[in-house]
Specification:
This protein has 345 residues and is an alpha/beta fold. The strands form 5 sheets. The chain has a 7-stranded mixed β-sheet, with helices on both faces. α11 links the parallel β14 and β15. The longest helix has 27 residues.
């Protein structure tokens, strides 16, 4: 049944998976109508299993939940497990254990928080969350996505705010103290938004990944040598947590020193690639797994993908990425089908 945005449907039968067209946003009536029409067409083929996302508010999930349960089994699939499985299925990998790196804007985790900077050890049947980006509060929930300065504010412990947002900043501090409307997220997409807001001095956005694309464009123009920023990895309750707070302090120092924005953006991309490399090395030592899968919308960033591939391959990893379909949520339905196929066995 796919995701909420960039939705696709997949009908799998035998050794074939039929991938439908993209429906941009199922909150849009036209997209929802097209989705429902296509879903009803596939339902005439009487599928034995129907797979959907964990998130109960996705229109695709609601549609699946409202179907007559007679004749089929409903199989919810965790968002980031589906991302990794989609890349494995596209590349015809067998049901083997891999280190899955799933970076995107958001997806509901099995703990009820918003995931998005995830390292899983998984195969098609099972997954275990082994590491993730440190969680921060989304100050004001979805408003933090539209006003990414709030994300930078959270990473910098309320020591940053644009002058004309002072009243809002004070309100956000109270909101955070009361734990009101501040859901936790480990999203890598939101990390790009926070850095983009600082570096580009843009405090509101009007479209998805706006700041991430601008950061990539800036960084791609930098041609000199530059070292990455610092970050920490620590272990908590058996899970490795990637903490980039040192990076944020160093970015602020660079901005105060009037360093070129192209250089700062490039150093940031280098840092995220290094986070991937170092975490995968830790997980390889723990599990002896050498196969890495990169998936999720953040890997549409070609610079980040190239830097990550270089570091991982130089460290001896076997790395698989998307080649024919997008790494975005449009691939999610294929991953759901692959997971459901193995779970039904």
């Amino acid at each position: 049944m796919g995701a909420q945005t960039k939705n696709t449907l997949v009908f799998a039968q035998g050794n074939l998976a039929y991938l439908g067209p993209v429906h941009s946003d199922l909150n849009n009536p036209q997209d929802l109508y097209a989705f429902e029409k296509e879903a009803k067409y596939f339902l005439k083929k009487k599928p034995k299993v129907i797979a959907c996302d964990f998130h109960p508010e996705y229109q695709s999930t609601k549609f699946a939940l409202n179907l007559d349960p007679a004749g089929h089994r409903l199989q919810p699939v965790q968002h980031h497990h589906a991302h990794i499985s989609s890349c494995m299925a596209e590349n015809k990998l067998p049901n083997q254990k891999v280190i899955g790196v799933a970076f995107d804007g958001t997806g509901l985790g099995d703990d009820g928080t918003l995931w998005g900077g995830e390292f899983l050890i998984c195969n098609y049947q099972r997954y275990q969350r082994m590491a993730h980006l440190k969680q921060i509060p989304l100050l004001g929930a979805e408003e933090a996505i539209r006003q990414p300065w709030r994300l930078a504010c959270a990473w910098l412990d309320f020591k940053f705010h644009p002058a004309f947002y002072k009243k809002e900043w004070q309100g956000l501090k109270k909101m955070y103290a009361l734990n009101f409307n501040t859901p936790a997220t480990s999203s890598m997409g939101r990390l790009f938004d926070a850095v983009g807001s600082l570096v580009l001095k843009k405090y509101q956005v009007s479209r998805e990944a706006e700041l991430a694309m601008e950061l990539e464009s800036l960084a791609s123009r930098y041609t000199l040598h530059a070292t990455r920023y610092s970050f920490n990895i620590h272990k908590k309750a058996g899970i490795y947590i990637i903490d980039p707070k040192m990076m944020f302090r160093q970015i602020v120092t660079d901005l105060k020193a009037a360093e070129a924005k192209e250089k700062i953006a490039y150093r940031f991309h280098q840092t995220v690639a290094a986070m991937i490399q170092r975490t995968c090395i830790i997980l390889r030592k723990k599990s002896t797994i050498n196969q890495v899968i990169l998936s999720g919308g953040v890997f549409q960033n070609k610079l980040l993908l190239d830097l990550s591939l270089e570091l991982l391959c130089n460290t001896g990893f076997n790395v698989t990425t998307h080649k024919e379909i997008s790494s975005s949520d449009s691939a999610l339905s294929l991953g759901q089908a692959a997971v459901a196929n193995y779970l039904r066995r």
